[in-house]
Amino acid sequence: MEKYPKTVRMWIITCLLLILGQAATENDRDFKMCGTWRHGIAPRNLKYDLKTGCKEIEISANETTLSIQGSITAKCTQSSFINLESNPLQNQSNFCVFWEPLLDLLIVEVNGKNHTLCRSNGFQEDCCTDLSQDQQENAGLYGIVNGSTHGDIISYEVKKIYNFKGDSINCKKKFCDEASGANMIEEVVMKSNTTGRLDLPCAQSTIIEMKEDFTGLHLTLPAPGNVPPNLIPSVYLPSCLKSKSRSISKVVCTYYKDQALFQGASNSTILNDIVGLSVENEIIKNLTEPVKIKFHHSALPANYSRRCVSWDTRQDNDVNWRSDGCETVEIHDTETECHCNHLTYFAILVEVKQKATVRHLKALTFITAVGCAVSLVSCVVLFYWLCKRRGKTQISLVHRGLVVAIFLLCLFFILTGTMANLTNKVVCMITGSLLHYALLSTLCWMAMEVFHTFLLIRKVFDTTLPTWIFYLVGFGLPVLPVSMLLLIGDIYGERKIVPIDDVENPYLMCWMVKKDKSLLAHYLVNVGLLAVVVSSGAVMLFLVVREIRNRPDWKKIHVAFLSIWGLTCLFGTTWGLGFLDFGPMSEAILFFFCIINSLQGFFLMLRYYALERMKKKDRSFSDGSSSGSSKQHMLQTYEKS
Ligand SMILES: *[C@@H]1O[C@H](CO)[C@@H](O)[C@H](O)[C@H]1NC(C)=O
Ligand SMILES: *[C@@H]1O[C@H](CO)[C@@H](O)[C@H](O)[C@H]1NC(C)=O
């Protein structure tokens, strides 16, 4: 089968490219010619005669000799012969000739064994490429059958000689133009067999050999001349990168200038610098010490966040940026370090995204602060009332517990803003955990209010639980999740809330940091507990209404009763919502939540006052009335709410 003329082939390719709309380039830079050598049974050899230049290469074969000669190399001049292992029973051998002009690398494979005729000599500027088939010469018995280039059969017949002509071009440029991704560059750099620096128009690589005594290495990447030295990314390779099973491992670090190689799915911007890292023939996982890559960049606006992402080019052919495996360390406004603990071939960069912003943050902060202050005072007053009251029933114990918990919650909520501005990480972490403790404690005491209602409804007034159980659940239980999260680490810390109208001055608070881990903890612990309290509160309200609906005096007080219970449920449960992400909430709801949440202590006091008044009224009303006892029972029922 005769091959299509080159021009026709190019047309077909161009059309295909237009149809497919993607750069599936026919890569003519490198050359691969394979065939089957029909030879005799006598001892054989591989003869070669290679010179510099760009004329042609001749691949020929006869009974005893496979011969490669011509002038296509940039620097390599070699001429000699190699005696091949000859099996007298074998009368043919498969062979391939590989030519990588970018590296000046020529390899001949015969019967599965590679013979490197020209060693790689770094990246070549001018090189002989686009080898196209020129003349062939037919032969009789001995020669080459099934000759093919890049897998396309040229001829099934026996040929004595194949001739290929080349063009001299700028190989580095062609390579960069053709490279369809970072993985391709990486592959060629690995093959280059050199150490030290290799430059391409689109990337600069450093190849390092890690020997037995490798103890870690700080490395400033080579960069194009126009990048100021203090802006070039630097890399730290830890000693654990060197695998014990090999005496020498090669690491390639590449600095990419050309972002076009990385444009992919990510819709967020990436910073200019991209670093590629890989260890030869090795998949590196779970490093005990991470590889660190430090990027320098211009200061980002406050409403932007940065994140280290990586693309495992051996796993995904398409650009696919992932954030797992790398940790982002914001050293400075203009410096970001990526700590990565696994790599196969990684391209690492810093992705920049606009943060979620909140409108009217100043107003919200103000409202919340005032509300919290009012609540603090209310809690103190209410606590005083509750203590003064004689007959310390269990329910007043639960009320007092809730008052203390809400007091702490308001106190820490006010404190957290101040603490965050101290910029002391440990202090902020502790304040964050205390705030979380107060929130959980509040939710626990609310759960106990609900539980107490349950006891009342089931008419098990007489079963009084020991006091310490209430304290243990209300104040002791929340210690558990908080200390667990503290042990896990990296959960509590500074959280920035960015106002939309003043992005440069974010509101700082000490709470859970914005990370996947703490988000998970938030959903499991806070939202989980909140859901339990809300749903059990709703069930309890339903039960209470059903229980007392048929009482004769129900009509008189049911409005007050329902409103008290309803408000309790609402106030009692919205606190947690305030800590949910602000993002999807509409502004009106946000304001509403802030007001209600911060005034919770105040509402608690109002509720208590209302109950107290109703009780007094009821008492005077019930004097001399026949249904005194049932009323007394109902009072206790209010009481629990
Ligand atoms: C085979 O070719 C080589 C050179 O290409 C030549 O030296 C040798 O004499 C040839 N052998 C035969 C048997 O023609
Ligand atoms: C010989 O080298 C070529 C080109 O680098 C490579 O593709 C091939 O797998 C090698 N063959 C063997 C047997 O190592």
What does this entry look like structurally?
By secondary structure, the chain is α+β, with helices and mostly antiparallel strands. It folds into 3 domains: 26-169, Sandwich (Jelly Rolls); 179-351, Chondroitinase Ac, Chain A, domain 3 (Sandwich); 357-639, Rhodopsin 7-helix transmembrane proteins (Rhopdopsin 7-helix transmembrane proteins). The chain is built from 13 helices and 26 strands. The model is unreliable at 1-5, 10-27 and 622-641 (pLDDT under 50). Bound molecules: 2-acetamido-2-deoxy-beta-D-glucopyranose (2 copies).
Q: Which key features would you list for this structure?
A:
six-stranded antiparallel sheet, Chondroitinase Ac, Chain A, domain 3, 29% strand, 13 helices, Rhopdopsin 7-helix transmembrane proteins, alpha+beta, six-stranded mixed sheet, disordered N terminus, binds 2-acetamido-2-deoxy-beta-D-glucopyranose, disordered C terminus, single chain, Jelly Rolls, 39% helix, 3 domains, 641 residues
